[in-house]
Amino acid sequence: MTINQSTRIAFVGTGIMGSQKAAHLLAGGYPLTVHNRTRSKTDGLVKQGAVWAETPAAAARDADVVFTMLAHPQAVEAVALAEGTGLLAAMKPGALWIDSSTTNPAFARRMAAEAERRGVHHLDAPVSGSKKQAQAAELLFFVGGEEAVIEGCREMLGLMGKQVNYVGGHGMGIAFKLVINHLLATSMIAFAEGLALGEALGIPQQTLLDTLIGGVVTAPYLARKREKLASGDYRAEFPLRWMQKDLEMVAETAYQVGAAMPVSNAAKETFRLAIQHGYGDDDLSAIYAFLKSPYLPPTFLGVTNPHNRGIVLAGWRAGSGAPTPWNLLSANHTLKENRNGTNRTIRAAALLPDRRGRRLAANNRDRRHGCRRLRPGGQANRCRGVLHGLSG
Fold first, then answer.
1. What is the mean pLDDT of residues 295-305?
2. What are 159-164's contacts with CB under 8 Å, separation 24+?
3. Over 80: is that where the pLDDT of 389 sits?
4. Which of 10-24, 186-200, 348-362 has the lowest mean pLDDT?
5. For residue 155, which phi and psi values (nearest 5 degrees)?
6. Which of 349, 350, 388 is nearest to 371 (CA)?
7. How large is the C-alpha radius of gyration of the chain?
8. What Cα–Cα distance (Å) separates residue 184 from each residue in 63, 155, 174, 307, 315?
9. How far apart are the C-alpha atoms of 264 and 9, rounded to whole Å?
């Protein structure tokens, strides 16, 4: 197919990365229609001249090229195949669907087959890079599909990235992306562990960062994470929860082809624990903050304190080393439980602190109810309600 300035483009999925890519297409002069589940995330693009569509089907109906950049395979399948609103049924024969979502090779090949049944071309074209690279049009594309189709859209893809790599047939672009994200995740967590170990041994953080970053044993991309690691500002460029999701894709794909991935799976479960402790929406580099914290497993022991009609929570690990957001719980912290003026022995099935270390909430659930703020070395301040999951 021929792509030129009159080629009509639709973009479905305008989150952190998709919105930047779509903006470059607008700046390149292409007519653009956009759709996103949360409409407000398209407002900036509409102000720049994009047209809003109510459904994926409406976005795709008149488009020559449709981009999708969504969170996971389930979202892609829903957007593509949902009855009445799915984009594939609305696309005209000969149009091109470029999926930049991180899915897995088997899924990409299935979507390519669905597209082919409708006379639509399909490319899996995930990218390497995060928000800053997307803003600067410095993404790397890894593309799977028909080579002739890829060659026809190199110039358009070049508006969003600095390199377009043809990997092979359908599914091969995402296969390469999974290799990259495996390396990204495991190197990030290895560096975070090393940094935490060095600090525990008494080496200043600045010395570790100055010496390790840029050295022969450290992945080059970690230089872009230095400011976050040093400042503790983990506003997301690539959210930790999506890194964990990508490792799920790695594990699923490895299982299908019989590849052993022990290190990747250990990283996957560590990221999962970090999500459970409230780090999911932070940048993936926040895994360092999680590893630096005294990881607190569930406890269910509560013993009545007769002196203040409260309870002492036992089983919590005391903090050590330099202060961190979590470094404030110890066996001496008391929690007032003066319910009706009676002493109680309370058993908690699973008490976990939130990521700021300032609350306790059973099973890490809704913290608006039944929490109590803790002050290190002091008594607890009451919050509304009672702790969830507690029984006498």
1. 37
2. 159/24, 159/25, 159/27, 159/28, 160/20, 160/21, 160/24, 160/25, 160/127, 160/134, 161/127, 161/129, 161/137, 162/137, 162/138
3. no
4. 348-362
5. -65, -40
6. 388
7. 25
8. 35, 28, 15, 52, 35
9. 37
Beta bridge partners of 304: 311
Nearest to 339 by CA among 304, 297, 375: 304
- Least confidently predicted of 199-203, 273-277, 291-295: 291-295
Tell me how far CA of residue 206 lies from CA of 178, 189, 243, in angstroms: 32, 18, 26
* pLDDT above 70 (res 219): yes
This prediction has a pTM of: 0.76
Question: CA distances (Å), 65 to each of 77, 317, 356, in order?
Answer: 18, 55, 45
CB 283 within 8 A of CB 226: no
Q: Given a cut of 60, is residue 299 above it in pLDDT?
A: no
| Predicted pLDDT at 6 | 92
At 326, list the tokens: 């979590």
Contact between 335 and 380 under an 8 Å Cβ cutoff? The reply is yes
User: Which pLDDT band, with edges at 50, 70 and 90, does 295 fall under?
Assistant: low
In this structure, what token pair is assigned to residue 176?
């390469």
Looking at beta carbons, which pairs linking 342-346 to residues 24 or more positions away fall under 8 Å? 342/309, 343/304, 343/306, 343/309, 344/304, 344/311, 344/392, 345/302, 345/303, 345/304, 345/311, 345/392, 346/302, 346/304, 346/311, 346/387, 346/390, 346/391, 346/392
Kindly report the average pLDDT of the chain as a whole number. 81
